[in-house]
Amino acid sequence: VLIVDGAVEHDLKLSFSDLARFPRQSLRATDEVGKESLFEGVLVAELLKAAGVKFGKDLRGKSLADYLLVETADGYRVVFALPEFDPSFKQSLVLLADSRDGGPLAESDGQLRLIIPSEKRYARWVRHLVALHVEHS
């Protein structure tokens, strides 16, 4: 279902049962059409930590320029700086959602979707997410 690879200590190939073992998080957010929903899933930071990405006091120096390339099933890609996921840098959450209002995501969202309530535009709320690639700058 999801690949986490690149500049990580170990690549991950996660199934839905693998994702279910991570701590679950829920948050309310309003989507691009103005509908507020309760999204549930796993924080992206938890997935990155599981792959060995360092956060907190270990995210410093050259690592501050490392980035996450998010890829969807149709090849759409967006970029995030790694500090955007680190709670020691930001209070906002980035959720890899697999559930909306207690049920599965809509078919148009795919099986996994990023939810970023702090963003004013929705260009990085990617749908049909399939991979998280950590890259050195």
Description:
The protein is globular, with a radius of gyration of 14 Å. 9% of the residues lie in helices and 37% in strands. The protein has 137 residues and is mainly beta. The chain is built from two helices and ten strands, in the order E-E-H-E-E-H-E-E-E-E-E-E.
Please render the helix and strand layout as text.
Blueprint: E1 2-6, E2 12-14, H1 16-20, E3 25-30, E4 36-43, H2 44-50, E5 67-72, E6 77-81, E7 95-100, E8 103-104, E9 113-115, E10 129-135
Parallel strand pairs: 1-10
Antiparallel strand pairs: 1-2, 3-4, 4-7, 5-6, 5-10, 7-8, 7-9
Calculate the mean pLDDT score and round it: 94
Beta-strand percentage range:
35-45%
Q: Helical region count?
A: 2
User: Gap between N and C termini, in Å?
Assistant: 27 Å
Characterize the main sheet.
5 strands, mixed
Poorly predicted runs: none
The percent range for helix content is under 10%
From the spread of the alpha carbons, the general shape counts as globular
Counting helices, strands and paired strands, the structural category is mainly beta
Helix-strand pattern, N to C? EEHEEHEEEEEE
Cα-atom radius of gyration? 14 Å
Q: Order of strands across the widest beta sheet?
A: 2-1-10-5-6
The total beta strand count reads 10
Short structural summary:
This protein has 137 residues and is mainly β. The chain contains 2 helices and 10 strands, in the order E-E-H-E-E-H-E-E-E-E-E-E. It is globular and about 40 Å long.
Please supply descriptive tags for the structure shown above.
single chain; 137 residues; mainly beta; 5-stranded mixed β-sheet; 37% strand
